[in-house]
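Quick one: structure for this chain?
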Amino acid sequence: GTARESNKNGELMPEDRRYSGIYRVVFGKALCYLMVYAVMGAYLTMVVPRLFSFPMLASGYNLLLLMIPYLIACVFFGMTVSCMVRYRENVMLLVVFVSVPLIFVSGVSWPQSNIPGAWQGVSWLFPSTFGIRAYVRMNSMGATFGQVLPEIRYMWIQATAYFGATCLVYGHQLRLSRRRAKAIKI
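Got it. Here's what it folds into:
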């Protein structure tokens, strides 16, 4: 939303020579987001449970290894979805609307065996599903890192798929921006 609002044409990516390489733009933005969310993720998974004396069965090292594919998948998912959101205020509405159903379909607050197959399939589109399942299994049930490898593999698959989707969407946005800039110059 902020990128669109600060651009005079209201586009996600301005027509500028510095934005010539899609991979540079995608990796640059992703690294910025990763740095911010790595700090937040470490705080939420390692500091907050200790502050409130929650039982923690997973080691900090295993939690960090779990956070890597989860954060990467979330960042690329967010970057893909950001192309569909025009105003930054709409993101909060989207999060409020989607967060409760995502908690239910993750299998944490509702038994996974009672979730219809179609909804389980929909839940596989979101990195939170596999991240929540792996975190709960490791930290609350005492699962080893090897026992949550399927969830970690799914998060890496999502990260790869959403990276590809992000590159496609940002490339499309850049092409639109260039077309509009040429139309304005003519």
